[in-house]
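In the design runs reported in the main text, the only information available to the sequence generator was the tokenized backbone. The following block is the verbatim input for one such run; it is reproduced so that readers can re-run the procedure and compare outputs position by position.
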């Protein structure tokens, strides 16, 4: 149903406000998604550390 539908009209403004607030409230992230995200962040940090070490080693060879 569309928001402007008269069948969905609520007579109590407080009830309508609470329903809209519940609809707009952000959902907590799923544990699976947050676990995958933390794994991806850790992998990216490892790659960056490895690249930094590679550049440091190359710079040490040039000096």
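Verbatim output:
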């Amino acid at each position: 149903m569309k928001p402007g539908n008269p069948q969905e009209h609520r007579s109590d403004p407080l009830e309508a406000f609470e329903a809209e607030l519940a609809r707009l409230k952000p959902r907590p992230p799923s544990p699976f998604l947050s676990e995958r995200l933390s794994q991806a962040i850790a992998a990216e940090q490892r790659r960056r550390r490895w690249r930094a070490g590679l550049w440091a080693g190359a710079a040490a060879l040039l000096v």
